[in-house]
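It would be a great kindness if you could assist me with a short task in structural biology. I am sending you one protein, given as its amino acid sequence and as whole-number tokens for its backbone shapes. I would ask you to consider whether the tokens describe a fold that such a sequence might reasonably adopt. The full record is reproduced below for your convenience.
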Amino acid sequence: MKTSIELVKKIQAIAFAGLEYCENDFDRERYDELKKLSQLLFAEITDTPIKKIQNLFANETGYQTPKVDVRAVVFKENKILMVKEKIDGRWSIPGGWADIGYSPSEIAIKEAKEESGADVKPVRLLAVIDKLKHDYPISPFHIYKIFILCELVNNDFSSGTETSEVSFFSKDDLPHLSGARITEEQIHMLFHLWENPSEQVVFD
């Protein structure tokens, strides 16, 4: 199924690019039809209502590029900072979509504050991964994840509008993870990179 989904996403990307650069109404009509067909296929393969798929892409225009998800990685006493997501009641590392006008480190600071109440200072890049190459649930978007190691500036923790709890966990006692946002394998990867600062940045 994953391979089929990736093919559908590539078809949709071609459709969006065609709509952006086509020079006549005939081509525009064909690319628009290709876009609609790709969304119908995605809905059928994933058993998702077509209206939901259409709403996801309602604001998408132009040449399609991967979305960027930035995560703030904070350690304290051999434990990692995590937040409980209201949307699914499971745990993840503070972070979210990169906003226009912010650098990756600024996003890490912003997301850590909004989701955990913590003030942090970005220290170094740990990893840049493509969700497609890791064991994540199927997503309608192609997503890159950026993990930035951050130093904890204060201990004034509080949940945010999208989170309900804040806590630290050891790598051997992890909570129920929000699988669309973080995997156990990656938590262990982050611990390894933190424990071995001479290791190179992980990518792909």
